[in-house]
Structures are given as C-alpha cells and as structure tokens.
C-alpha cells in the first residue's frame, strides 16, 4: 500500500531494508491476506503465525505492517464500515487488538503504530493510561507483571472520560490483557470476596469485612475484532499470564459467534493428541524466545501455525559485546559505581563529550531501590524504577524520558528496520559542536541529568531503548537464559553496538555458578 510505504520511508528513510524477520513477514503474511476472501467464514481462512527473532530485530514492524495494511484495505472495500462502528452501542469497537505484558510496552507500541499511520489514517488507542498501586514484591517475574497489568480506576468506568470520547472510533487498541478484559467485562469482573477467615482484624480484634465492590460498566465490544497480536508471547502464555490471555482470546471468539472449547472433555490434549484452537480472527504471536512451555502449547493447540523464525533466534545480537566483572569482595554497590565511572572515563578517552547512559538490572525491587539511592548519594543522578514506583502511576512513559528511543524520522520507535545489515536506523549522533554545547548545558553531567536507570525484569521485555544506552549491567544472576537474553538485548539493538557487563564471583564459594553462567552466555553469543 503506497501510503503505508510512504510512512515507513518517512520513519526509516527511503533506503530502508528489511531485517530477516521482516523479510519473512513480507513473504508470508501479506500474500496470505491478499488471497483471503473479503468475509471469510471458514476456519482455514484465518491466519495463525508466530514471529520469532532475537531482540532488536524489528518484530514489531513485522507484525504491524501486514495488520495495518489489511485493516485499511478492508475499510476501503467495505462501504458499511462507518455504519458498523455506529452499531457498537456507545462502546469501543476495535478491529484489532495488540496485547503486551506491561503498560510501558503498550504505550511504546501504540506510539510506534501511530507513527506508521500518518498517510493511511487509521485510529490507534493505547488503553494503558494509568496503573493501580501495586504491593511490594521481592522481584518482578511474569507473576508480578500479571498483577501489575491492572487498569486505572475512574469511578465504575474502565475507560475514563478521555477514552470515552473515542469510543466506537478505534481501529487498533493496544494494552495488557487484564486492562482489555476489564474494559470488556467491567471493572471488578473477576473479584472474588475472600472467606471470612481471611478478613483483616482491627485493633480490637474484630474482623473487618472487605469493602464491597461493584461490577463496573463495560466500555469495549469484541465482535469487530479481526486481528489479535500477542507481543512477548513467551510472557503472555507463561503460567502467570496465560489465564488472562486465553480468557480474552476465547471471549473474542464468543463475541464473534464462534465459541471455542479450550477444555475438551474427551482427552487431555498434547502434541501427540492435539486439540487445535481455530479462532475466528487472525492471530499473530511475537517473541524473542520459545521456552518449552510455549512450544508445547503451540504444538498442542496451534499445530498448523505458520512459524517464521530468524537465523539468530535464541542468540545475542551480533553487535553486542559481553564483558565479565568480578566482585571485589567488598561493597558490591561500590563495584557497580566504579564500573559506571569507568564507562564515562572511556567516553572521555574517545573524545566524546556526551556521556553514555547505562541500564542496570537487579532481581529484586529492594535491591534496585537500594542501589539507586547509593548511586544518587555518590553524585550519580539515577532513576530507580520498580513495580512499586510512584512514577508508574502517571499514565505515561515520561518517567523513562531520555532512556527510551524517541519517535520521528530516523528513530524507529520499537524495533523498526533500515540501516546497515538490515537493522533499524538510529538517530544520528550529535556533532562535536552539538555534543560540546549539550555538555555545557548539563547533558553530559552525570550528577545533574540521569544517565543510569536501575530496574528489574519489569523493563526487560520488548521496550526499545535509545541508542545512548550502550551498556547494560547485569548485577544479579538471571533466573534463566531467556531472562538474560531479554535483559542483555536492551542494548546492541537495531544494528547498534552495545556491551553487556555481567557481574559475578570469580573466586571462592559461589564462583562455580558464575563459571557455569559464562559457559551458557558464551553459547548465546556463538
């Protein structure tokens, strides 16, 4: 579609070349839709595909382009589209859903999609406008992400006044499964009152009944949905997230008049005795890893799924260098501070007035918060962001300003495509004069402007960080190599050079774990 192509060129440049996963999308996903009937009524008319590729390889554009083109073609071919929108009874009636595990990722994906639509005029809305306060947790895993993927509260309305203005006028809705389910079913739809023995006790020893919760008003209908994208599918089909994801996928099928039985009574499904789920809509899954649980689920319930995988799946980006840093045996926070200052010393040696930004991953909220406080006390302006941070309540990604990749020409948003070796184009670095003026203005002054972001796995999934982030520090051993791939993959994105620094013990008790991890990391870099 010329208008969509013009938007891609405006975003990435006219010389943009597809990455391997994008080339596979162009070959398989666009052709499938051109051959499909305008109003398919059979199971095999709907596309099911998996896009699997390493971090920073352009998966977002690989799934957005075929979806957006098809939505626009359908709109042009269907003169009754406006009438259909009018039949949503005052509720939002999107034609496509893009699901993500966190509000931060939902917002970035929404912004990236909007950047592709200046010429074809589709309507995209991010429904992750605000977060509820979350309880303190020791670390952020898929379980914590699932709890955090709740919607904001605006009376009994899951949409809120600003979103209400756009109801019925949305082509693509982007958000977490929990948020979208809340909009479909009403706030508190899944609330279960705890039994009396679990009620809290007041100062007098009397049990206190929980506050009564009312079912809120629905604000979204699903019968018009023809495309569903599950981004970060390895998370959204994780044991902690899968119930929400599957409930939503089933609800869409039911709304479209094609109920799905995902619990067959005749036998326990498995890859050997599959129970295919033929959803009445196009389903695209995107992931940087295929853990065994996801592979089992796909083999069992989507055996005919088209699988598109890049050659470097389950490998680190080729432009990412790995370095190992040994704990000195003293203050580990001081070790991190020392390595940070070394990064900026190396910047100065290379004649750069602009100081690199560094992303630091910890396993626990308390560890991230403590390290953030320590670095700030040592004169290093630091942002510490965890699941409980107040900054996440503001309903935007401004708390990540200066760290996320900006939108606009030459800035591919969340992994686009172009540049050398088919990688995404990055904004050009500042000239020496610009860098010098920026340094004088404080841009390179690490004690005035944050150059360090300390976080947990909360921000390791999908987010596209700015090219300024050349270094990722991993100060706690990841749960598994998939977790390592996602954390390390926040740098070295889109063909840019990057370095991941892995801290660990090299002597004495516990050093064997570090040696084992080095072997496994080495295999990822091969």
From TrEMBL:
Gene3D superfamilies: P-loop containing nucleotide triphosphate hydrolases
Domain of life: Eukaryota
Domain Helicase ATP-binding, chain residue ranges per copy: 50-308
Entry EC no(s): 3.6.4.13
GO molecular function: ATP binding; hydrolase activity; nucleic acid binding; RNA helicase activity
Keywords, alphabetical: ATP-binding, Helicase, Hydrolase, Nucleotide-binding
Record flagged with keyword Isomerase: no
Protein name: RNA helicase
């Amino acid at each position: 579609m010329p208008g969509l192509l013009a938007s891609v060129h405006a975003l990435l440049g006219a010389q943009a070349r597809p990455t391997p996963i994008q080339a596979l999308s162009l070959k398989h996903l666009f052709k499938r839709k051109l051959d499909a009937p305008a109003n398919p009524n059979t199971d095999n008319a709907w596309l099911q595909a998996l896009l699997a590729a390493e971090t920073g390889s352009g998966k977002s554009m690989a799934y957005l382009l075929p979806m957006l083109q098809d939505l626009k073609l359908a709109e042009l071919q269907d003169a009754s589209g406006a009438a259909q929108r009018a039949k949503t009874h005052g509720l939002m009636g999107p034609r496509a859903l893009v699901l993500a595990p966190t509000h931060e990722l939902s917002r970035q994906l929404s912004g990236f999609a909007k950047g592709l639509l200046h010429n074809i005029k589709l309507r995209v809305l991010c429904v992750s406008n605000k977060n509820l306060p979350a309880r303190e947790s020791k670390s952020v895993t898929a379980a914590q992400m699932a709890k955090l993927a709740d919607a904001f509260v605006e009376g009994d309305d899951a949409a809120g006044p600003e979103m209400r203005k756009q109801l019925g006028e949305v082509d693509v809705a982007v958000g977490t499964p929990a948020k979208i389910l809340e909009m479909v079913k009403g706030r508190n739809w899944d609330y279960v009152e705890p039994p009396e023995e679990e009620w809290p006790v007041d100062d007098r020893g009397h049990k206190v009944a929980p506050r009564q919760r009312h079912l809120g008003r629905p604000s979204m209908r699903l019968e018009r949905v023809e495309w569903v994208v599950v981004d970060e599918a390895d998370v959204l089909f994780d044991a902690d997230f899968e119930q929400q994801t599957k409930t939503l996928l089933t609800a869409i099928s039911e709304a479209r008049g094609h109920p799905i039985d995902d619990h067959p009574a005749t036998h326990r499904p498995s890859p050997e005795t599959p129970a295919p789920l033929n959803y009445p809509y196009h389903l695209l899954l995107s992931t940087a890893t295929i853990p065994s649980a996801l592979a089992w689920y796909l083999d069992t319930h989507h055996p005919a799924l088209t699988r598109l995988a890049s050659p470097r799946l389950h490998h680190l980006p080729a432009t990412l260098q790995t370095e190992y840093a040994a704990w000195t045996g003293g203050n580990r926070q001081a070790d991190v501070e020392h390595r940070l200052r070394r990064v900026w010393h190396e910047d100065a040696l290379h004649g750069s007035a602009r100081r690199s930004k560094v992303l630091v991953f910890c396993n626990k909220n308390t560890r991230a918060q403590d390290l953030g406080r320590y670095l700030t006390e040592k004169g290093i302006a630091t942002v510490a962001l965890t699941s409980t941070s107040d900054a996440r309540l503001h309903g935007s990604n401004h708390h990540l300003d200066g760290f996320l990749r900006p939108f606009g020409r030459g800035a591919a948003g969340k992994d686009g495509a172009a540049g050398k070796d088919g990688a995404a184009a990055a904004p050009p670095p500042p000239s020496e004069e610009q860098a010098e003026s920026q340094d004088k203005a404080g841009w390179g002054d690490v004690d005035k402007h944050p150059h360090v972001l300390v976080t947990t796995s909360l921000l390791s999934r999908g987010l596209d960080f700015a090219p300024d982030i050349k270094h990722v520090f991993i100060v706690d051993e990841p749960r598994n190599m998939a977790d390592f791939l996602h954390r390390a993959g926040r740098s070295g994105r889109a063909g840019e050079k990057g370095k991941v620094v892995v801290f660990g013990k090299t002597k004495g008790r516990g050093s064997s774990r570090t040696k084992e991890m080095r072997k496994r990391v080495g295999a990822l870099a091969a």
